[in-house]
Design brief:
By secondary structure, the chain is of the alpha+beta class. It has a 5-stranded mixed β-sheet with strand order 5-2-3-6-7. Strands 1-4 form a two-stranded antiparallel ribbon. 39% of the residues lie in helices and 26% in strands. It has 7 helices and 7 strands.
Length: 189
């Protein structure tokens, strides 16, 4: 359970530590607002993404299914600054076992709403789908801008980090792997 009172007290301490006046009009409710926001952006810690993959349908479909450009927001665990972008999730069903398309987005959203590294986000989404659906293969590609690189440190806004996780048939079959990466890139300028 996310402890919003504890978060609010911590934010008060941070504001005091940087020399701010907690009684200043603009800051009076900031600790509570930040606590509420943290409960939302870290809400994936309290949810099980696997639950969304329990209902499957049997279709006569054994070709790739790809959902592209899934928007997400996550939080870098190193600096607690956001990273955000798009995820692309593909799988090849085994024996026609498919899941509702929105379920792939729900899994991505839940896993994203945790403090983490982009690499872990990418691998976790792929592993969950692979373990729960038992497909022939899974590919997850995540493209994200990290505010920890945009507004601090190297200060290079617009730099995009791309990570991928490749499982099953996509790892062993070069033509399937090539097809999914071509489809992900299709339509980009």
């Amino acid at each position: 359970m996310i402890d919003q009172d504890k978060i609010a007290r911590a934010v008060e301490m941070i504001l005091e530590a940087i020399g701010e006046d907690l009684n200043r009009e603009g800051l009076r409710s900031t600790p509570q607002r930040v606590a509420k926001m943290y409960a939302e952006v870290f809400g994936g810690l309290e949810l099980n993404p696997r639950e969304h993959l329990q209902t499957c349908f049997c279709e006569n479909h054994d070709e790739m299914i790809l959902v592209k450009d899934i928007p997400f927001y996550s939080m870098c665990e190193h600096h607690l600054l956001p990273f955000y972008g798009k995820a692309h999730v593909a799988y090849i069903p085994d024996q026609g076992r498919v899941v509702g398309l929105s379920k792939l987005l729900r899994v991505t959203d839940i896993v994203a709403r945790r403090p983490q590294l982009q690499e872990r986000l990418t691998s976790n989404v792929a592993d969950i789908i692979m373990e729960e659906l038992n497909p022939k293969g899974v590919v997850v590609v995540v493209e994200a801008e990290h505010l920890c690189m945009s507004i601090r440190g190297i200060k290079k806004p617009g730099a995009i980090t791309v990570t991928s996780a490749v499982r099953g048939l996509f790892r062993t079959n070069p033509s399937s792997r090539g097809e999914v990466f071509t489809l992900i890139e299709k339509g980009k300028s």
